[in-house]
From TrEMBL:
Name of protein: Dihydroxy-acid dehydratase
EC top class named in words: lyase
Residues in Dihydroxy-acid/6-phosphogluconate dehydratase C-terminal domain copies: 359-557
Annotated GO biological process: isoleucine biosynthetic process; L-valine biosynthetic process
Names of the cofactor(s): Mg(2+); [2Fe-2S] cluster
Any Gene Ontology CC annotation: cytosol
HAMAP family: IlvD
The encoding gene: ilvD
Domain (Dihydroxy-acid/6-phosphogluconate dehydratase N-terminal) ranges: 31-348
Native species: Syntrophobotulus glycolicus (strain DSM 8271 / FlGlyR)
Active site: S469
Length: 565
């Protein structure tokens, strides 16, 4: 047992003394120590109910002969952190979560882990820890929030963000907005659509690291408590069989993850988190892979924000992730031989899955689109890639040309959008928001949702080295790499320059004579590019350290592990 290092032999009598101080019996001390990593807090609606999930997990662990030992980790609500200095800390929390789990598990000699995440960065942070530690591990998430109802329509958090644009453009009143705000988020759980949290919770199930239902069973259903008990039971079996995360998350299962991502129309943030999880597991992940898989994987689900009226609860009723995977497996689009935390191969665990509603999970012969939900664009504005959720556009495969309006940072861009200074045909550039320069690669739902609310989301392009929400839609292109602060081409673009986006060819180009580009490159001062990072971070704050170690978006913004990375 791994935990023998803290409990076996005469030399460990002091350690056993401390376990007895915790109230553990001899039997409990002799059983495997199962760390239950609970990201409960009273600030995040997605996490407010996790104590109950954790109690159910611990009951399952005990029932199967394990000793549960709960500890906590932080969690940020992206909705509350949105649009201000708080958002610099959101992606950065992912690495801190992974690191803090590593510390607790290794310091106390744990044998196996159950992870209880819910919202955006907690899911990948915990998966990264699982890959790093490679102790038997399983995930059970908090589950999705239900949509709300307002004036006869289903609504959610994104409706409120877009509602701000409706008020600013005079389509609706502030009183209307107050009514909407009171109804949009009716329960605990991760926000109701295929936003980042639910995207990652669904992909955790696809990767095989959670039991079936983890991605879609609503937070308030008792079925989720049953899932939590089953998860607690199962982790002890995983420990007995010595099945570890790196046996489950392999190159093949990551590819399955990308295929499901394309079929489901997940958040653009998955293209940061999947590479980061792969990086922790020493699995190669090249952004070209996303386009290759996207070319052959039809999008068969369209949930909010791509389509109003389809939520995670509807996907759950339509058969959930198992039914989506069965559809893909029957067409040879995923590998069914990969292992899962259920024990057997993926094909076995989904063999009885059926699609119960073909409006929510379409067939491969009548998909929403022949290609996947995300696209990685390359070109002279983004030599190392940029990401767009094409699956949330009304039409795909078109060419957009426009003139740049350049803003150094989100705040200036938001001001211009709110003041009505952005018009159809503009290409809004928001730069110095990358992983290092931001720092923290802010998620910018404010600008994209305000444009959507104003009806400008498909006639204005928004380009950034920062990121978007899973709820962002429109011609929003993020993760432009290399970022401005590192002298990426986005740093040299000026007001009035021509930008060409070709969604069919998956390219993003900056149309300017090479001599002029070269002249501007010569003037670049890298120290100035990083100035803002240290201004935001302060002298001793976490973000200063974060900015030094974080890699580019095309590497998942994961921390450098060695000097060579
Ligand atoms: C607030 C949201 C909707 O959770 C967003 O942060 C996302 O990334 O989807
Ligand atoms: Mg987010």
């Amino acid at each position: 047992m791994n935990s023998d290092s803290v409990k076996k032999g005469a030399a460990r009598a002091p350690h056993r003394s401390l376990f007895r101080a915790l109230g553990l019996t001899d039997r409990e001390i002799n059983q495997p120590f199962i760390g239950v990593v609970n990201s409960f807090n009273e600030l995040v609606p997605g996490h407010m109910h996790l104590r109950q999930i954790s109690e159910a997990v611990k009951a399952g662990v005990r029932e199967n002969g394990g000793t549960p030992l709960e500890f906590s980790t932080i969690a940020v609500c992206d909705g509350i952190a949105m649009g201000h200095v708080g958002m610099h800390f959101s992606l950065a929390s992912r690495e801190l979560i992974a690191d803090s789990v590593e510390i607790m598990a290794r310091a106390h000699g744990l044998d196996a882990l159950v992870f209880i995440p819910s919202c955006d960065k907690v899911v990948p942070g915990m998966l990264m820890a699982a890959m790093r530690l490679n102790l038997p591990a399983i995930v059970v998430s908090g589950g999705p929030m239900l949509p709300g109802r307002f004036r006869g329509e289903e609504v959610n958090l994104i409706s409120v963000f877009e509602g701000v644009g409706k008020v600013l453009s005079g389509q609706e009143s502030e009183e209307w907005l107050k009514g909407l705000e009171s109804k949009a988020c009716p329960t605990c759980g991760s926000c109701a659509g295929m936003f980042t949290a639910n995207s990652m919770n669904c992909l955790t199930e696809v990767l095989g690291m959670a039991l079936p239902g983890n991605g879609t069973i609503p937070a308030v259903y008792s079925e989720r408590l049953i899932l939590a008990k089953e998860t607690g039971y199962q982790v002890v079996d995983l420990w007995r069989q010595n099945i570890r995360p790196r046996d489950i998350v392999t190159k093949e299962s990551i590819l399955n993850g990308v295929a499901a991502d394309m079929a489901l129309g997940c958040s653009t943030n998955t293209i940061l988190h999947l590479p980061a999880v792969a990086f922790e597991g020493e699995i190669e992940f090249d952004l070209n892979l996303v386009n290759r898989v996207s070319e052959e994987t039809p999008q068969i689900c369209k949930l909010s924000p791509a389509l109003h009226g389809h939520y995670l609860v509807d996907l759950n009723e339509a058969g959930g992730i198992s039914a989506v995977l069965k559809t893909l497996l029957d067409a040879g689009l995923i590998d069914g031989s990969v292992k899962t935390v259920s024990g057997g191969p993926l094909a076995e665990r989904i063999q009885d899955a059926v699609v119960r509603d073909t409006k929510v999970i379409r067939s491969l012969t009548e998909p929403y689109s022949a290609k996947g939900g995300l696209s990685v664009l390359f070109g002279d504005l983004a030599p190392e890639g940029a990401v767009i959720k094409v699956g949330a556009l009304a039409q795909r495969d078109f060419v957009f040309e426009g003139r740049a309006k350049v803003f150094d940072g989100e705040d200036l861009a938001s001001e211009a959008i709110s003041a009505g200074r952005i018009v159809a045909g503009d290409v809004v550039i928001i730069r110095y928001e990358g992983p290092k320069g931001g720092p923290g690669m802010r998620e910018m739902l404010g600008p994209t949702a305000t444009l959507a609310g104003m009806g400008l989301d498909e006639t204005v392009a928004l380009l950034t080295d920062g990121r978007f929400s899973g709820g962002s839609r429109g011609l929003s292109i993020g993760h432009i790499a290399p970022e401005a602060a590192l002298g990426g081409e986005i740093a040299f673009i000026e007001d009035g320059d021509l930008v060409r986006i070709d969604l069919k060819k998956r390219t993003i180009d900056w149309i300017l004579p090479e001599e002029e580009k070269e002249k501007r490159r010569q003037q670049f001062d890298q120290a100035k590019g990083l100035e803002k990072a240290f201004e935001v971070a302060g002298r001793t704050g976490y973000l200063g350290r974060y900015a030094q170690f974080v890699q580019s978006a095309n590497k998942g913004a994961a921390f450098r592990a060695t000097k060579e990375d």
